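Record pair follows.
FIRST:
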Amino acid sequence: MHEYVSFNRKIQSAAGASISAASSAALYGKGIFTTVAVFNAKPFLWDKHWLRLRGNAEKIKIDLSEYDKETISAALAEIIGVNNLEDARVRLTFFDEAPGGIWSFTAQTKTSLLITTAERREVSPTFRLTVSPFQVNSASPLAGVKSCNYMEKIIALEEAKKRGFDEAVQMNERGEIVSACMANIFWTINGELFTPSLKTGCLPGTTREFLLEKIKCREIEANSETLKKADAVFLTSAGIGIIQISEYENRKYETKFEQITRLIQSI
């Protein structure tokens, strides 16, 4: 992470940005975030990110009345300039500073906004994928919400890395493919592109939405064995872009499908 951040629309050192220890964000992880890719010093798909942030805030009752798209766009541009970003990533996090229903106190700020920046995530040239033992609950009130309550995802990713993999596919309670821990997933079979439907509980990623607008793709419910039959598997997110998987559960994918990656990335 870079030294300078934007906290409540003020540039400061990352070490000096803090939220109340008694806030709902600190006590319960009540907050939402999004990671935005930066290309040529410009935030990519910012409109989609903002719409998702607003929708997520409404779903879990976070007050964004003090914020609007134009103000946050200006804050984004400022921190991109201060940290001299060209190709990087930016995370916007809204913390609910209001008191919770269990522990009450007087809050001075309803919602705080932290904008942090970093370089693009490094991706292994031989990206290996496994199946996570931890399921996603498609009926959870947080299904499809990019909330700060992210420990389940972190634990699933760390478990996969301990076994020597780069990422893991998570299933829901019905055994359907949902996503990777930190990315959406796509695959091709006989030249046709597929991705899990939102019914599975997957996050409606902005890169996922962008691809669905640009390329013919079927949103389906499928089990983990489907990926072993696939010709190629891809992960997508703002942090990693679009990458092709090299191996899934000892199933290795041929390099001839790299042209699919180049085709998608050229859009």
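SECOND:
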Amino acid sequence: MLKKIGAFFKEPPSAEPIQDSEKVSSLYKHWRWRIFYSSFIAYVVFHLCRKNIAVALPSMGKALNLSNTELGLLGSTLYVTYGIGKFVNGVIADKANVRTFLPTALILSAICNICFVLSAMFITPGHVSFFGLPSATVLLWILAFFWGANGWFQSCGFPPVAKSLSYWFSNSERGTKWSIWSTSHQIGVFSAVALSGFVIDKFGWMAAFYVPAIICIITGVWLFDRLRDKPQTLGLPDIEKYNNEPVKEATKEETDDTPYFQIFKEHILCNPIIWMLAIAYIFVYIIRFGTEDWLVKYLVEVKGNALTIASAKLSTLALVGSGGAIMAGVISDKIFKGNRTSVNIIFLILLIVSLYLFATNPSGKPIFEILDYVYAAMIGVFTAGPQMLIGGLCAVESSSKKVASASIGFTGIFGYVGAALSSGGTGFVVDKFGWNGAIAFWMISTMICVVICTVLFFFERFKKKKAQQG
């Protein structure tokens, strides 16, 4: 059984190289577009079974009598398992078949969402005691288990996509293609928030889990047909060769005969740039998930918005924010000539300004409501850029293509440490110090990230200067 499972997920061998150049060109055009849009749609749909909880929090908290701290701890379980899983699954994805690995993860994530909501249907707080424990405590732990399991399967989504983008698009185009693809995150959040807000309004908070689950299962089956692994598995040449681009000379650590762990050690574990990116990613994710997960509750409780209005404002953050990822990619390519760190610093400083404007904007008058949408959009734009660059493109470009998924997974571990701190930390801070404490928590995190990126900027300049001299 285990051998059959291993064979199902194992990366397929390279096919016989196709010699007909016209056929190669035709197949590359077909498969590059198909891989790109399939990966894009896949990651959008993944968010339906992950960000749905952000909209469900107010209703779920009341229905199950959960405090902000308990809701935060519940969210943290996903981020802990997601962070660990992103690294482990990143290593696995480098050697796994994208076609089977990604769709299976999406379907299993959907099943976890169904189990999550079924738990709340069968265990009612205050009614039954289990093994001497209050039913509310038992329910919280069961919910945490299924949401944590969901985090693990969710973590299988990004690594195979990173692998696909690295192998199907060359260096000269990867920055633009990656930034366009990365908007799938913001569109995914927008779709999850819009869908969850609609079904909660019509059918109650539980619908925010089982409706997205059905969509994810259908999409997972469709992805089995759409996706393929590396170009070589279809008999196509390496993408750099196809695009007539110079290929970076392989070091001895990157040769085909070199063990995977040796490449991993050289380009990740012993790479100071990767470590700085990873630490910075902690603070990017504190602000990213702080706003994504808690903004609806903040607007309902602090500004008195209805759930639909609060959801619409969060949707603006996600939808308009998608432009921030593209903006960051294009600016770093065209203006800063590949210097991603400068763009990160600029975006993070503007993010601090956006948070301050959003928090100090009054409520009540129509003009203030409009400004809430504007400031939420600004938060989305200036978060999306660093989120895409620091833990994604920068990590891949600072390592080796042979460990592309692992480099994403490594920075992802640190990112989801930040996510766990954001979820549980924000809930704790709100209970102890109010919502102003939460805003301060997010702003200070952003400031720390600016400092780390500034250190990285000077380190990269020093390293480049030393390389030119030597």
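COMMENT: The chain has a mean pLDDT of 84.
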